[in-house]
Q: What sequence folds into this?
């Protein structure tokens, strides 16, 4: 087993005037408004400039990792050599595009340096054409990079630096074999830079196999969440989840965040309900075209959307600043995914809140998450109607106090307004103004029940229901084995084909994981998934018959938990 070489850095950068960085790079950094480097930048940049050692940097999502590796790599690049010198591998096309955008910003005054993003879902012919013209940096998702290698469209023999960004996410998505195949094609004398939020055994395995005495730079504690993120938990019955979500949102009038759901269907349903109930929300999931995704994300980035309802797959690689809240409508099955979700808030020194809307059966999972993030959840009662009304009221008053008044434009209207309102005294005007803006909340919550009390009653009712179900099952002689047999022989609906996958609940495979595996494929965003049946060791699912052949072909190269999955028609 490898050991990390110790690395301690006394040098602390108070600005980006770093000895050895190209003046054109520093000028671009200044244009971006960077003043004081973030901790990961303050430690990685000097280490890269002062040595050619491999580096492992453990830091949360959104801590400035792109600049940490991008600035020194741009500084080292030779624009006169029209060949691939740097390969950056990342898990999703969104992150691929974000990294490319950042690198281009850093190269603003170095126009001869060319950066190319390569990812699935975009024309591979255009990417091959760009490679033929010559590029210095390639930012790629593993699947598309392998396609280019197989077509002999890219030469990695000239690569001197490889960056594995969000390595834990790439492995969670089943890219271990792809990474192995790609790294074998890069010269052994390269420098490898591994950036990850967490350090599970699989990431350590990559480091052991492909890195030479790496320096480890840890920003914060290993596998811990950001110190700037508070973790709250509201426990409710399943029937109260949506109402609890609305109350959490209403209790935070200035909320700007992401609501994470398990499946594409649930994402669409929750977003539709929120929009119908008057909330500024949109859905982001795999059924959207790239143009639709870009449109939704642009609206979210500029703040026209306050709540983005998304699956983990759809939200990977999103880089949005100033998020106040992450809301886990469902806790993820993969505990490390919670860390990635919560790491999207509390960035750049700002504070954030990660909310878990937990079910009655989530107690053990909450404890696992607490152990993983080295923090405890603050368990709270779901906000009561009166508390929400109070929060909203004072938020309204604060907004009124801070509003910018254009006296020049409004003064001409005031005499008529004063004349119109002269029959009202000051207290009446305030009451009417507040009621005009505030009646929706007052009317909605005046008779609303306490969800915490409802949760306790529901828990007791659930226990009784479970007891009755158990008695009935015993009476009728139904066993889990018999149910599994029923699932295995069930016929597909008309127009659908039933497929079998060789992993089940015992392997930690649940519907959301299955959807993620499908979304990893080239055709994933087009696939319409029907019924899903899970047994201990097997998964049966239905897709449209006209898509079956295409998906079966693509799933040949998909891995789950480090092993290749086998999928066949039933």
A:
């Amino acid at each position: 087993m490898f050991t990390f070489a110790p690395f301690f850095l006394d040098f602390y950068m108070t600005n980006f005037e770093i000895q050895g960085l190209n003046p054109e790079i520093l000028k671009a950094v200044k244009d971006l408004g960077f003043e004081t480097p973030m901790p990961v930048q303050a430690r990685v940049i000097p280490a890269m400039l002062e040595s050619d050692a491999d580096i492992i940097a453990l830091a949360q999502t959104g801590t400035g990792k792109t600049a940490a590796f991008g600035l020194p790599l741009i500084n080292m690049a030779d624009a006169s050599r029209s060949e691939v010198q740097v390969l950056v591998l990342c898990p999703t096309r969104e992150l691929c595009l974000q990294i490319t955008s950042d690198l281009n910003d850093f190269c603003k005054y170095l126009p001869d340096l060319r950066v190319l993003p390569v990812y699935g879902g975009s024309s591979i012919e255009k990417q091959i054409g760009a490679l033929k013209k010559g590029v210095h940096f390639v930012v790629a998702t593993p699947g598309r990079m392998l396609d280019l290698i197989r077509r002999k469209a890219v030469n990695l023999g000239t690569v001197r630096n490889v960056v594995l960004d969000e390595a834990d996410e790439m492995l969670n998505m089943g890219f271990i074999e792809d990474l192995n195949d790609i790294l074998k094609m890069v010269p052994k004398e390269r420098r490898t830079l591994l950036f990850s939020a967490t350090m599970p055994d699989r990431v350590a395995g990559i480091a052991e196999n492909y890195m030479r005495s790496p320096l480890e730079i840890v920003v914060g504690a290993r596998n811990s969440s950001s110190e700037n993120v508070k973790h709250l938990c509201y426990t409710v019955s399943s029937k109260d989840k949506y109402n609890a979500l609305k109350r959490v949102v209403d209790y935070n009038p200035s909320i700007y965040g992401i609501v994470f759901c398990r499946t594409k269907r649930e994402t669409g349903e929750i977003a539709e309900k929120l929009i119908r109930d008057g909330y500024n929300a949109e859905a982001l999931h795999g059924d959207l075209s790239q143009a639709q995704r870009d449109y939704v994300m642009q609206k979210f980035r500029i703040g026209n959307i306050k709540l983005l309802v998304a699956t983990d797959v759809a939200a990977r690689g999103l880089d949005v600043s100033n998020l106040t809240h992450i809301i886990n409508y469902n806790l993820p099955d993969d505990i490390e995914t919670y860390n990635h979700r919560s790491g999207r808030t509390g960035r750049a020194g700002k504070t954030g809140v990660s909310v878990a809307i937990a079910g009655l059966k989530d107690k053990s999972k909450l404890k696992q998450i607490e152990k993983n993030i080295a923090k405890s959840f603050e368990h709270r009662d779901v906000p009561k109607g009166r508390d929400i009304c109070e929060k909203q009221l004072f938020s309204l008053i604060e907004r009124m106090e801070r509003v910018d008044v254009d006296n020049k434009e409004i003064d001409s209207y005031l005499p008529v307004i004063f004349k119109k309102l002269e029959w009202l005294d000051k207290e009446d005007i305030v009451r009417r103004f507040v009621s005009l803006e505030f009646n929706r909340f007052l009317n909605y919550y005046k008779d609303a029940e306490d969800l915490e009390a409802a949760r306790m009653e529901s828990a007791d009712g659930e226990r009784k229901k479970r007891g009755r179900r158990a008695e009935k099952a015993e009476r009728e002689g139904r066993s889990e084995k018999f149910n599994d047999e029923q699932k295995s022989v069930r016929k597909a609906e008309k127009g659908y084909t039933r497929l079998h996958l060789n992993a089940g609940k015992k392997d930690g495979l649940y519907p959301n994981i299955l959807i993620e595996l499908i979304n990893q494929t080239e055709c994933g965003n087009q696939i319409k998934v029907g019924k899903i049946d899970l047994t201990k060791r097997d998964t049966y699912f239905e897709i449209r018959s006209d898509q079956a052949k295409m998906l079966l072909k693509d799933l040949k190269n998909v891995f789950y938990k480090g092993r290749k999955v086998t999928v066949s028609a039933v």
User: Anything to note?
Assistant: Confidence is low (pLDDT under 50) at residues 1-14. The chain is about 45% helix and 15% strand. The first helix runs from residue 23 to 31. The first strand starts at residue 55 and ends at 58.
